[in-house]
Amino acid sequence: MMLLEDVRRLALALPETTEQPHFALASFRVREKIFMAASADDTRAHVDKADVHAAVDDDPAVFGQLRRGQLLLGLEVDLAAYDADR
């Protein structure tokens, strides 16, 4: 299991990463480009430009498609279901 605080620590350890609000969500950016955001309830991470289909096929209980209508935006990770040792 991972918590948003674990994700935040890992994200902010990456070079040039900053945390900024994105509407009501926490977002993580490099040079103003968002690569990850937290869900509104802080239980899921939304990751941009991930290999969505491979991750969902690997473990659909943890990974899902992040969509806006028909548009695939990225990967959603259920933090409670994610094994931090993975």
Radius of gyration: 12 Å
Per DSSP, the total helix count is 2
> What composes the largest sheet?
6 strands, antiparallel
Quaternary structure state of the chains depicted: single chain
In spatial order, strands of the major sheet run 1-2-3-4-6-5
Shape type: globular
User: Element order, helices and strands?
Assistant: HEEEEHEE
Question: Hey, roughly how much beta strand do the residues contain?
Answer: 35-45%
Q: Share of helix among residues?
A: 10-25%
Q: How many domains, as an integer?
A: 1
- Pairing-aware structural class of the strands and helices? alpha+beta
Counting DSSP E segments of at least 2 residues, the number of strands comes to 6
Q: Mean of the pLDDT scores?
A: 91
**Which residues sit in consecutive blocks of at least 5 with pLDDT less than 50?**
none
Distance between the termini: 10 Å
Supply the key terms.
86 residues, alpha+beta, 6-stranded antiparallel sheet, 43% strand
Task: Describe the fold and architecture.
- This protein has 86 residues and is α+β, with helices and mostly antiparallel strands.
- It has helices spanning 4-12, 52-58, and strands at residues 17-22, 25-30, 33-38, 44-48, 63-68, 71-78.
- Strand 1 and strand 2 form a beta hairpin.
- 20% of the residues are buried.
- The mean pLDDT is 91.
